[in-house]
Amino acid sequence: SLASTAITCFTRGLDLRKGTEDVLCPANCPLWQFYVFGDGVYASLSSVCGAAIHSGVITNTGGAVRVQTLPGQENYPAVNANGIQSQVLSRWASSFSVTAGAKNTALEAVGRSVSTARPSTGKRPKKTVDKKAGNKDCKADIAFLIDGSYNIGQRRFNLQKNFVGKVAVMLGIGTEGPHVGVVQASEHPKIEFYLKNFTAAKEVLFAIKELGFRGGNSNTGKALKYTAQKFFSLENGARKGIPKIIVVFLDGWPSDDLEEAGIVAREFGVNVFIVSVAKPTTEELGMVQDIGFVDKAVCRNNGFFSYQMPTWFGTTKYVKPLVQKLCSHEQMLCSKTCYNSVNIGFLIDGSSSVGESNFRLVLEFVSNVAKAFEISDIGSKVAAVQFTYDQRTEFGFTDHVSKDKVLAAIRNIRYMSGGTATGDAISFTTRNVFGPVRDGPNKNFLVVLTDGQSYDDVRGPAAAAQKAGITVFSVGVAWAPLDDLKDMASEPRESHTFFTREFTGLEQMVPDIIRGICRDFLESKQ
């Protein structure tokens, strides 16, 4: 059978490259987070696994799906099925359908061999799993932050090492699977080994066995902050686009404060889990600086990121549930992805040559690009400026912090009509719209939409925008001169310049703009 590709809950039809592709959907995708457009035939903007559940091909336990690319169409309907409400889309450039996929033995074997870490009794048939590659379904770069303080003591420290070793084995470490490293927290943090040091479970197990107990205060906050800042650099083996995770093991309670470290970790896009063992008893609570230390350090205080074990004895049954959490790619809410870590400003030409009905098509284009991103107060943000000879900020980055509000604000933009001064408009947007967010954590993008020759110079203002850290995409329609478009666009210009003769052609460009933003985000990202 064809090899299946493991995808995430959020992989969309337009992210797949082949005409027919066999994919494997993970289990337990959060149904309410799916974006699905249509019924039976889905717009390629839709989540593949969402469409497969919606159409009844799989359930929420995941499974194999065959995706067939189809041409675009008009009027994708909204239908509620199998717990998912699909949405209406008036037009999209391409579609797909889903059917039950071929069962792929190799991938299933990975799933099985990882989930049952019992020693082989020799009865089981040999598995055809690529051991070196590891579990490709579990994409994670993980730092185990182990407790090396006097709180835990030498004996429990050894039990902790055994537990971490079991977790490491069950994760399915490999070149294309999870990578792990270990940091020991005590008086001062010490990185014991990095992500890049080992890519085989055997080597990792050996390295864990060799760890020596350091002793000292349990300065977990200090160690967490240090790990978030120093551990995940590219030169230390962190991989682009793969979730960064710190699993903090805490015996008892920390000697220092975790709150600031938790904030730093979130700023760095790191997902913090806390495994607390032997929680403080009622008598001991008086010695704890901050009773809510777990809630302040974890990625999100939603129950998913905290994990409790009563003691270090008999911990085997806790291994698998922890591994399942660490491999739940789509639950890693603190990861920075292009979808949740960008600011996109749209600079919209409102000159008289556009006309009211074409202006609506421009707004539809803007909506469809914005729709693909996770817009929230801590996620991506969108702003829009309309220009003629004058400029009008329709809304800034902090005016609307939910996707629904942004889409409503785009729909409400009124057409100005007038001349075309694109250069001035770029300067205005750089200063007034991007200025206030210049030092924020998100990467900045400007999409300039114009249908004609500018009356002023565009090259200077575009160069200044790029110098201010803004990546510029230029989208031209009808009479927009190619030289102007290229002069405005970021390097490499070919991949940042788009042109269509007709306004109806804007629709086809949506996936390319989204992909371009994600590509630039990944290339720029630490």
TrEMBL record:
GO terms, biological process: sensory perception of sound
Source species, domain of life:
Eukaryota
What are the entry keywords? Disulfide bond, Glycoprotein, Repeat, Secreted, Signal
Q: Which residues cross the membrane?
A: none
Q: List each coiled-coil range.
A: none
Q: Where in the cell is it found?
A: Secreted
What the entry lists under InterPro entries is as follows: ECM_Assembly_Org, LCCL, LCCL_sf, VWF_A, vWFA_dom_sf
Annotated VWFA domain ranges read 141-326, 343-513
**One GO cellular component, as annotated:** extracellular region
Cite the LCCL domain residue spans from the record.
3-96
Q: What is its main location?
A: secreted
Functional description taken from the UniProt entry: Plays a role in the control of cell shape and motility in the trabecular meshwork.
Spell out the PANTHER family in the cross-references. Answer: COCHLIN, COLLAGEN ALPHA
**Under what name is this protein listed?**
Cochlin
Q: What is the lineage of its organism?
A: Eukaryota, Metazoa, Chordata, Craniata, Vertebrata
